[in-house]
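ESCALATION

Customer reports they have been waiting on this structure for their group meeting. Please prioritize. Original submission:
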Amino acid sequence: MIENSKEILCTICARGGSKGVKNKNIRELSGKPLIAHSIQRAKDSKLFEHIVVSTDSDEIAEISIKYGAEVFFKRDDDLASDTAGKVPVIRDAFIRSESHFSKKFDTLIDLDATSPLRTVEDIINSLELFEREGFDNLFSVMPSRKSPYFNLVEEDKDGRVNLSKPLDETVLRRQDAPKTYDINGSIYIWKRDIILKEDSLFLDKTGLYVMPEERSIDIDTAVDFKFVEFLMRDN
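Update from on-call: job pushed to the front of the queue and completed.
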């Protein structure tokens, strides 16, 4: 059960420069711009008084406001570069939001603009898990398609191929290997004090929210975009 007394901020971070798919954050997907899908899911969850978009693009800002998000600052250039880390960008939006709204938020939920297939239930259920288990932070994942214990390989410095993580006993079936997950980039949640001081996603009390593959596509390429379009039409 979600604690209704808590102040929860939603951020959506979307920069203008996209190399894999040009202008992907505002490219039309199933009748509306890509970023609008994440804004709409956040609104439909009814968890947030404020849904804040962090961007360096005037066009993204205009579209985000049109679909119901708040954009009250323009992201600094050093946080809009190809090398800018995800956590510092989200932290910047969080700090600016507390100052702008003159309040402290207990919890931050960040929704990636390029993951439009998450559902309202995913947002609500991940927050319920986060609060129930008392995690410091949580992020969404999907079961790995390849296992480092079974069929994920790498080359060493001498060019020799080995399993990425060999075990003492050989794993003959993928089902017998330890469970591994891919970060799907869809949902990230932090306690206030954690987002303000921690740069790593991997902490002593980090939780995982597992989503199925069909809701876990993070759009990085033109092929990803076409596949998501196909899934949305199929649904």
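Sent to customer with the following note: The chain has two domains: 8-143+183-234, 145-179.
Escalation resolved.
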